[in-house]
Amino acid sequence: MDNQGKQSKEQQILAAAEQEFLTKGYDGARTTSIAQAAGVTHAMLHYYFRTKEQLFERIVDEKFETISDSMFAIMGDPSLPIVERIKGGISAHFDFVAENPLLPRFVINEIISRPERYELLHKRIGDIIDNISNGLQSEIDHAAERGEMEKMDVKMLFISIMSLNIFTFLAYPFMKPLLGELMADRERFLAERKAENIETILRRIKKQ
Amino acid sequence: MDNQGKQSKEQQILAAAEQEFLTKGYDGARTTSIAQAAGVTHAMLHYYFRTKEQLFERIVDEKFETISDSMFAIMGDPSLPIVERIKGGISAHFDFVAENPLLPRFVINEIISRPERYELLHKRIGDIIDNISNGLQSEIDHAAERGEMEKMDVKMLFISIMSLNIFTFLAYPFMKPLLGELMADRERFLAERKAENIETILRRIKKQ
DNA sequence: TTCGAGTTTAACAAATATGTCTAACAAAAA
DNA sequence: TTTTTGTTAGACATATTTGTTAAACTCGAA
Q1: In this complex, is the C-beta atom of B27 within 8 Å of any C-beta atom belonging to chain A?
Q2: Is the pLDDT at A7 greater than 60, yes or no?
Q3: A57-205 has which fold?
Q4: Among A155, A45, A101, which Cα is nearest to B175's?
Q5: b/e for B40-52, b at 16 or more Cβ within 10 A?
Q6: Fewest CB within 10 angstroms: A83, B31, B72, B207, which?
Q7: Shortest CA distance from A21: residue in chain B
């Protein structure tokens, strides 16, 4: 109970901090507000994490890990035929973003406002991109030679997939009141968007 | 010189405020920093705009006007055949966002963090969407009946266009170091993205 | 039981940000 | 010239926010 309670306090602060930073950003977040949401005095927050900055770093590290995973999801299952593989990759990535709808905005904001911090992230993401560029690109090239799909730059393909999947969640609060009765239900709208994104990309890579 | 100088001070503050708010957001912006960038004392900022909030409102109003214009641009030239019209709409919208690359992030952030303020915007954008849904949708339906293009929900089409065009600029700081030598030149990358987005949407609406 | 490490609280300190006030100043009107 | 209106700078006030400190408490181990 004590050790679990100790872990728990720290975890409570982390959970409250995650929520606050993801919704309000670094500048909008308040350490007192985080402490209050976590049910501890604000001195406790400083006791465990020293400064707001260090607490933020903890959240950032955790979230960048998640981002790496999401990019990996786009790669799809290498044992499937290429078109099925891409289809599965889009679907998995869409689901990933649906599970973490606040994440893209957070990452975009933090990278734009503090570009200097992220050499590490760039290195890690860069490795993933290189994997993709090497492995998947040659597979696409071979499939294209066999006439199974259109020849295509894999980086461009990935940007398009991320655009379609991520923007849906970035702009959802903006679009929601404009969609009309048909789309008022979030689940239904997301299902239709997912299908639409898959359709759009599959047509893009279809040999014609 | 005097009257023009007076106008100029207010304009200087507005220009500095626009830059500060667009890059740092409301919470990150500092009135003293805005005043300094404008070359005036911070008392002047309060003299002209009373509060940070009111100064911010001025910028928001102006930027929402721009957003409305950008959505209108997607509609394209009604005198063109439908496929050409859509192609032109994508291109015009892409150029619009390229001219205002910081705007999407600003709007998304403000809407997420202060949803209550934007009934007015929603009404205005809602009218634009209705125009589109009525006018363009029926034109698309007719073209589809004539076999000129695929039958398609115009709202879904617009979301896809906005996704592809806007995300490019939202994520550019993130992607830039990952693109490799080929894309290192911003102008070249944007030209290729624009062509790719047009190709993607045209294939989506092409009758097959 | 007493010792001590780790935990917790409340009070305090310092910095920063927004906003106000007064007095000086400039330019145009009376 | 005097008055009036609007502009500007500097000092001041207030509130908020982050961060510190010292003392008290908890609980297991010696």
Answers
A1: yes
A2: no
A3: Tetracycline Repressor; domain 2 (1.10.357)
A4: A155
A5: beeebbeebbeeb
A6: B207
A7: B113
Closest CA to A199 of B75, B94, B205: B205
Q: Searching chain B, which residue's CA lies closest to the CA of residue A152?
A: B196
Q: Above pLDDT 70, what percent of chain B? A: 96
Report the distance separating Cα A53 and Cα A26, nearest Å.
Answer: 9
Do A106 and A25 meet the contact criterion of CB atoms below 8 Å apart?
yes
What is the per-residue pLDDT across A168-179, written as a single tens digit (0 to 9) for each? 999 998 888 778
Letter for the amino acid at A29?
A
Structure tokens at B195: 């062509």
C-beta within 7 A of nucleic chain C, residues 113-132 of B: none
Quote the pLDDT of residue B68.
86
- Alpha-carbon distances, residue B150 vs A82, A87, A193, B91 (angstroms): 25, 21, 17, 20
pTM above 0.90, yes or no: yes
Return left, alpha or beta for A187; rule: phi > 0 is left, psi -120 to 50 is alpha, else beta: alpha
Report the C-alpha gap between B31 and B33 in whole angstroms.
Answer: 5
Tokens of B5: 């100088």
Q: Which of residues 135-194 of A touch B (CB under 8 A)?
A: 155-156, 159-160, 162-164, 166-168, 170-171, 173-175, 177-180, 183, 192-193
Nearest nucleotide to A40, CA against C1' atoms: C8
Compare all CA atoms of chain B with the CA of A119 and give the residue at the minimum distance: B177
Residue of B168, B183, B188 lying closest to B90 (CA atoms): B168
A204 CB-near residues (< 8 Å, 6+ apart)? A150, A152, A157, A160, B199, B200, B203, B204
CATH class of A1-50: mainly alpha
Question: Taking the CA of residue B203 as centre, how many other CA atoms within 13 Å lie in the half-sphere pointing to its CB?
Answer: 20
Q: Where are the domains of chain A?
A: 1-50, 57-205
Compute the distance between CA of residue B13 and CA of residue B56 in angstroms, rounded to an integer: 11
What are the angstrom distances between the C-alpha of A19 and each of A15, A35, A103, A134? 6, 12, 11, 37
Between chains, do B159 and A175 touch, taking CB under 8 Å as contact?
yes
d(CA B202, CA B47): 53
Task: Note whether A1-50 and A57-205 share their fold.
Answer: no
